[in-house]
Design goal:
Elements: H1 3-23, H2 30-37, H3 41-48, H4 51-71, H5 83-100, H6 102-108, H7 119-135, H8 141-151, H9 154-163, H10 168-194
Helix pairs in contact: 1-2, 2-3, 3-4, 4-6, 5-7, 5-10, 7-8, 8-10
């Protein structure tokens, strides 16, 4: 990216951050950012593609720190702890991250046809799948991964905590419970498919 393009992008992000601080995420539009940065609206679209792209760029610093915490940070969230412990810590950390930045995260969520293919979701999906394999969990790991990922959906977390009034601790406990059920149930299904779940008949 050319130096002038880098400067323009930084100026647009500064303008957007100022609008978020002053008016809230819901009032940040491409037009408003263009006016605040004294540029044409086309410039904003060229840099970010659409509103969700602009809001994701605002989240970038927090997202990078969050991803680094579970990819390279200290255990039990980062490498060095047993996979099941890391999965538990990952869910708790993700719940905290998404709830802390919920306004930006919800506003930046892509439309339904691209919601599950967003890069940030892909990172979470790959991390959960990799740790599930490390635990030795058997069964349909692809669908188990999607089920666990669904619990960490920003809209669901917002609904549970801010609409239903559930304490964050209860939601975190729900993740631990779901994780235990998912890993144990998958093993049980696989054992059943092999016929191992039935006790041997006495001779």
């Amino acid at each position: 990216m050319r130096a002038d393009a880098v400067r323009n992008r930084a100026r647009l992000l500064q303008a957007a951050a100022r609008l978020v601080a002053e008016n809230g995420v819901e009032h940040v539009t491409m037009d408003a950012v263009a006016r605040a940065a004294s540029v044409g609206k086309g410039t904003v679209f060229r840099h970010f593609g659409e509103r969700s792209g602009l809001l994701l760029a605002l989240l970038d610093h927090a997202e990078q720190a969050y991803q680094a915490s579970f990819l390279t940070g200290p255990p039990p969230l980062g490498p060095g702890a047993p996979a099941l412990d890391r999965l538990e810590a990952f869910g708790v950390a993700t719940i905290g991250y998404l709830l802390t930045h919920r306004d930006l995260v919800l506003a930046a969520t892509p439309p339904p046809d691209r919601r599950f293919s967003a890069p940030s979701v892909g990172v979470r999906r790959a991390h959960i799948a990799g740790l599930l394999r490390e635990t030795g969990t058997e069964g349909d790991l692809e669908l188990l991964t999607e089920s666990l990922l669904a619990y960490l959906d920003p809209a669901l977390l917002d609904h549970l905590v801010h609409r239903r009034g559930m304490p964050r601790g209860r939601v975190e406990a729900g993740w631990r419970n779901l994780l235990e059920i998912a890993t144990n149930a998958a093993d049980g299904v696989t054992r059943g498919a092999r016929g191992d779940q039935h006790p041997a008949h006495p001779t």
